[in-house]
Write a structure and sequence with these properties.
The chain is of the alpha/beta class and 386 residues long. The chain has helices at 11-14, 17-21, 28-31, 66-76, 89-100, 117-124, 142-147, 170-180, 235-244, 252-261, 264-289, 312-321, 346-356, 378-381; strands spanning 37-38, 83-86, 107-110, 128-131, 152-158, 185-189, 211-216, 229-233, 294-297, 304-309, 324-325, 327-328, 338-342. Bound molecules: pyridoxal-5'-phosphate. Pyridoxal-5'-phosphate binds next to helix 5.
Length: 386
């Protein structure tokens, strides 16, 4: 890092204190790496192609492009007035905080280990991020959540959860919606719902005015670079979000491509992708279970697998050096020794397996030679690989 003059005139010290303290989201792109197998951001490994149909770049775009809204509503099984389109699900996370939480007064609540942007967005706005650890099976700890709801305006529930891959028990989401009625918004993050479409809670909107559902084109639709996501909620909640959204959140090309991705043809391509990913995930899971360095592979309803390794950081480093970039989850609460692997093409999955196979496990790892006399010299013992 370059030296900055640390005197009182530094612009950093002019920034809001919570911003000065803020550690920005460690996105896969920011973390870098020099790989040819990118399995750290839950992207789809291949790029769909599009051609622009609109060239009216002299004009401002529609704030809520009608065709995108119409098609997404039809796809999600909701009414157009129950859909807000924005710049990725990350913007949905942020809009909810901006619309519902007073800095220094209200809090959001979420259950680690989970997606990192809930806390980053809250910190950015100076809103308290309260946490209630998930239970050992990574389900909601409902009694503890109930105890912690005082002052909470917004609860984020990620299902399937990133990075653990499990669905949250629907009965628990319902209980949470009952407890929070009239008090807080429950935002169910369904970024990966295309990989388990039967699990969506979109059908519950009629019962819960305080339910918001977050969706994205970044995962199963293979459009992470497009930056397009959705909030599903009842019209009253959507109207509130419309007050705080930017006047032109989506550029003309984004709306154009999003509409194409949501055509009949786009939807069937997405469903084929989901089938391929699911196949590869099942294959990779079986292969991982046969690797010595893998302790446990968790079941997943999404496009990634979380696994616990006997020596996660050296596994991570070893694959990194071979150009295979995974996501290190070791620092997340409850996830020591865990790495997250995005499901890539079959060849990419094969590369992962080929790299993991030779790595030692706990049982086969190097043992210190039995030392009972001076005939074993320390020098040779210290040359054993670690
Ligand atoms: C990827 C992801 C998002 C962000 O999606 P974008 O539409 O790309 O902003 C939101 N939530 C979860 C759980 C994710 O994994």
């Amino acid at each position: 890092m370059r030296e900055t003059t640390n005197n009182s005139a530094s612009v950093t010290t002019l920034a809001r204190e919570n911003v000065q303290r803020l550690t920005p989201y460690q996105s896969a792109r920011r973390l870098g790496g020099n790989g040819d197998v990118w399995l750290n951001a839950n992207e789809y490994p291949l790029a769909p192609t599009f051609e622009l149909t609109a060239q009216t770049f002299n004009r401002y775009p529609e704030c809520q492009p009608v065709e995108v809204i119409r098609r997404y509503a039809a796809y999600a099984g909701v009414q157009p007035e129950q859909v807000l389109v924005c710049r990725g699900a990350d913007e949905s996370i942020e809009l909810l905080i901006r619309a519902f939480c007073v800095p220094g007064k209200d809090a959001i609540l979420y259950c680690p280990p989970t997606y990192g942007m809930y806390s980053v967005s809250a910190e950015t706005f100076g809103v308290e991020g309260r946490t209630v650890m998930a239970k050992e099976d990574w389900q909601l700890d409902l009694p503890a959540i109930e105890q912690a709801l005082d002052g909470v305006k917004l609860v984020y529930v990620c299902s399937p959860n990133n990075p653990t891959g499990n669905l949250i028990n629907p009965d628990d989401i319902r209980s949470l919606l009952e407890t929070t009625r009239g008090k807080a918004i429950v935002a169910v993050d369904e970024a990966y719902i295309e990989f388990c479409p039967q699990a969506t809670v979109a059908g519950w909107l009629k019962d819960y005015p305080h339910l918001a559902i977050l969706r994205t084109l970044s995962k199963a639709f293979a459009l992470a670079g497009l930056r397009c996501g959705f909030t599903l909620a009842n019209a009253e909640l959507i109207e509130v979000l419309m007050k705080v959204i930017a006047p032109y959140p989506l550029s003309t090309p984004v709306a154009d491509i999003a509409a194409q991705a949501l055509s009949e043809q786009g939807l069937s391509a997405m469903r084929q992708r989901v089938a391929d990913v699911t196949n590869n995930r099942q294959w990779l899971r079986q292969q991982l279970e046969q690797c010595d360095c893998v302790e446990q592979v968790f079941s997943s309803e999404s496009n990634y697998l979380l696994a616990r390794f006997t020596a996660a950081s050296s596994v991570f480093k070893s694959l990194w050096d071979q150009g295979i970039i995974l996501r290190d989850q070791n620092k997340q609460p409850g996830l020591s020794g865990c790495l997250r692997i995005t499901i890539g093409t079959r060849q990419e999955c094969q590369r992962v397996v080929d790299a993991l196979r030779p790595l030692p496990g706990a049982k086969s790892s190097v043992r210190v030679p039995f030392v009972n006399d001076s005939s074993v010299n320390n020098n040779s013992a210290s040359k054993e690989p670690m």
